[in-house]
Design a protein that fits this description.
two-stranded antiparallel sheet; 122 residues; 63% helix; mainly alpha; Arc Repressor Mutant, subunit A; 2 strands; 7% strand; 5 helices
């Protein structure tokens, strides 16, 4: 995983975990990688993964079963979607609008490219 400079690493890791849950790579109710496993996989300090997992626990995306590990909660999909949607609408969408305004890109072109993206990727 390549980390971006404009966002805290623990938030990027939380996004990575959330995305894996949303894509079904880590099933609802199933164990997610341990702190140590994920730290090794992403080549980060385990404390950074702990911080990401705490962040996700606060949002009820994962839950810790003491002595067993972390599991994706039953309502994790809904909680991830709500958080990511709120974050996108407040932080990323205004920047997107600014760019399409400055670059004089039409909504029709955006719509066409969005449809192309969906057909190519999903």
């Amino acid at each position: 995983m390549e980390f971006r400079d404009n966002e805290a690493i623990y938030l990027q890791i939380a996004g990575y975990v959330s995305e894996n849950i949303m894509l079904g790579k880590w099933a609802i109710g199933e164990k997610v990688p341990s702190v140590r496993e994920l730290a090794v996989e992403l080549q980060v300090n385990p404390n950074t993964v702990v911080r990401a997992y705490e962040f996700l626990q606060q949002r009820n995306v994962i839950a810790n079963k003491r002595g067993i590990g972390f599991f994706a909660t039953n309502n994790s999909m809904e909680n991830i979607e709500n958080y990511r949607k709120e974050r996108f609408l407040k932080q990323e969408l205004p920047e997107f609008f600014r760019n399409i305004y400055i670059l004089n890109i039409s909504l029709e072109e955006i719509g066409k490219r969005y449809q192309d993206f969906k057909s190519e990727n999903y």
